[in-house]
Give the backbone structure.
Amino acid sequence: MKKSRRNPETVPLGSTSRRKPLRQDARRARIEQIPKKVIKRLSLYLRVLRNLEMNSVPRVSSQSLAESLGFTSAQVRKDLAYFGQFGVPGVGYSVSDLLHNLEHILGTDREVRVAIIGAGNLGSALMSYGGFARHGVRIVMAFDTDIHKIGTERGGVWIFSMDSLEERLQAAEIDIAILTVPADVAQDVADRVVAAGISGILNFVPVHLRVPPHVRVQYVDLAIEIETLSYYLR
Amino acid sequence: MKKSRRNPETVPLGSTSRRKPLRQDARRARIEQIPKKVIKRLSLYLRVLRNLEMNSVPRVSSQSLAESLGFTSAQVRKDLAYFGQFGVPGVGYSVSDLLHNLEHILGTDREVRVAIIGAGNLGSALMSYGGFARHGVRIVMAFDTDIHKIGTERGGVWIFSMDSLEERLQAAEIDIAILTVPADVAQDVADRVVAAGISGILNFVPVHLRVPPHVRVQYVDLAIEIETLSYYLR
DNA sequence: TAGATTGTTAATCGATTAACAATC
DNA sequence: TAGATTGTTAATCGATTAACAATC
């Protein structure tokens, strides 16, 4: 016997009452380890959906979502299928429904609190960078060793001494640390951040960090991006 | 009959006379399309090799190269095999030989000339960012529309008017454009840059760029990195 | 020589795409 | 109803790893 493809209480497009079963799906999904590539694409879908919502577009198909990012429609549907059923056959997806569902899955429906460690060129540029706010990301504080920077602020973000790192990270309930420190201290700083209970690091330092398995590190290495491009020049 | 695994005129470790056959290999490789992931790892190997050379380490095995980056030794050997034979069985790789070979393959043995389009927070941080120089990357010029910024410099890089974009990119023989402009003009700027003959773009703007097939775009999307991390927080 | 490590093949693993019944 | 589009399975494609003969 074939199992039904949708919950019995079928809900009309635009309703939010499908949210409860989804959470369960999401939890199950998390256990069977979703590929990181899928998560990245989810975040890209979210960006498109936000644009569509801003333009008051009510519905979107996997086809058009895919086209605006250069993917295939099958990939969009497969990615979403990891987490549940969000569309209506023959109709497509409700933009605002899918948007909220994806935000919930990614955890950006609540505030994500980040701290920037190292207020050099890159660090302080990020402090003033406006692109985070609309993704529910809040830069709460920054740290540096330079006595001239400590106690000042940039883009509304205060810079504290590295001496107070652990206690402030904990008190401020920081979720993610952005590392923009010199290469020779990166591992030490990472160790301290992890010891303070942080489990997500965005690392701009060109150094491979050794961290415990529960800690996630995302690398952003500008020189390597350029070097990769360089290969393809003729 | 089995074909010999190495050139007849076997050269001792440390010699550079193996370079000529390599170029041929590299060219063949380029035709049968190397995966981009391989190119990225090549660049990571290069980083480790530079550290080893700085510490006067003469030789390295695929095993130790892999360990310092969290890869497997098989992957290191497989990646290198796309481009030729660089090691000596039972001995390993000459650090300086492999380093120079990889630089040649990636094209960072010659100067890579880049321009930064958009001298906002991020753009001007990159202008002062020191991390590029040791990779043979030279930030030659920057562009902006702000009359107050035009004619000034930052980190030794001059800011020019966007009006002169095409002619200056060409005159200065720019290889790669770094895009740090507002989202709503990103596609327009990309079109102009491409029309000026640029075929490599490093894009910091959270917008999917539509470019001709010969143009390579690398995306660096900070908000998406954070959103991806956010998913993994508990 | 004995031990170590490469380059390469085959086996495995994982991700993408095509295709289509189910559904609106 | 006819047309459109989903969710999902199976087929394809690609990337990683294990294993080992060849080599130093």
